[in-house]
């Protein structure tokens, strides 16, 4: 565990260099294990996450009581909460203008649910069409909403929409957002956004739904100060958890508590939309953070990507089980359609990016007619494959509309916003990990060259695209359900807090067989009585599956993540195998 490759693996079966914990992290983990008595594997994860030994127990049990920030630390908070309550008391007509992704849909559903519990009139939900209207408020929509409503609340959008909000002249507009702000704010009664330029940045990691939740916390405080009582906000944390994970918000600070508590709420199966969606995908256990990001989130997003933009928000907000089932089934069909469209764009984008070169600070691709609903997902795939910020653009006529995804430590949103200020983009914005942009076709090459230059200044492109980071070594016999539960207590894992990944060294391969078209099931045997079942998803899409299937009795180091496999009412530990290397 010095400066070399972990277990001397410079190139695994998938071509990756294995990176283990550095000496400082290893010493930190060892000291924590001695001081706390926690399992060494858990201490290795906590040390990598930067948790001090005396803070370990508190970190493993995050609570909102300890971590929830004072809502009033955000500018315009009291104005926004007071205006919302005034609208409820006056039974005013409220419109909610939301973004078409999970964060926007969950933010809208949060407000709709809260207003219902406050016995306020049902608000109007407006979500723009991704293709016809694009992201964020637009002047025609705002003009129409202003004509029929007393208050317009923009969620997960609006911070950069100066002209559109000006079109709502005569109607109060409140913006609840988290996207990067410009030097000037739009003409709104209140803009609550931790990423305003005049904010401290301490809460910059919040997603829009978390910002909405803080507004509701502040509204509850106003109610209590007046001798009243608001709804139980803890029951709404399932929506905040879903949005936090699906929007790839860093899982640190209060975000960890939001997700942990939200998953507990979700396990009660009280929200018809999430119950119907979980049943539609045959989820036979309470959701974990993984399911929010990779199972439920993509389906809620499918309406905004290739179907009707408001389907996801309607699913999350409905109280009707029959409507929830119908919406969940429709979103499942749209998700299948999205997958087919995505596969075609992904293949073309990857080929183009490889031709251009994937060692640069920015990996990008642009294609004629690429569906704007999938360019963000394809950008995520390119980012994952290359460990570089990625931008994918669909060209149509004289313009291209694209989406980008970033890697840890590189602020893509700020760079895209600077490009817009410099005139290389028609418009652009976002946050640290994701951004959207519109570019003139004839400025495409110049814009991407400049973006690559800006990202290089932040260190993009310096880490190896093939590095596989590992927390240490485990033996198969140590992989017990109890250990997996202890490891999960260090979660939830996701953006900014990658999940534990261990190596099982010098194991024999038993019972290896192909499952489906691309997966591999196998059993690990350390020769000392320890055995562990494993599965490698997509193993036959690359060299991993063929090599392990034809092992010929050779022994391997096997790397991956542990989880609990639920099958037939029983639980067992399973390794999600990600990589392997011959045991020298």
UniProtKB/TrEMBL annotation:
Keywords: Exonuclease, Hydrolase, Nuclease
InterPro entries (UniProt xref): DDH_dom, DHH_sf, DHHA1_dom, RecJ, RecJ_OB, SSDNA_exonuclease_RecJ
Span of domain DHHA1: 365-455
Signal sequence region: none
Domain RecJ OB: 471-579
GO MF entries: exonuclease activity
Any Pfam family the entry gives: DHH
Occurrences of domain DDH (ranges): 93-244
PANTHER family reported in the protein's UniProt record: SINGLE-STRANDED-DNA-SPECIFIC EXONUCLEASE RECJ (PTHR30255)
Family affiliation: Belongs to the RecJ family.
Protein name: Single-stranded-DNA-specific exonuclease RecJ
Species name: Roseovarius ramblicola
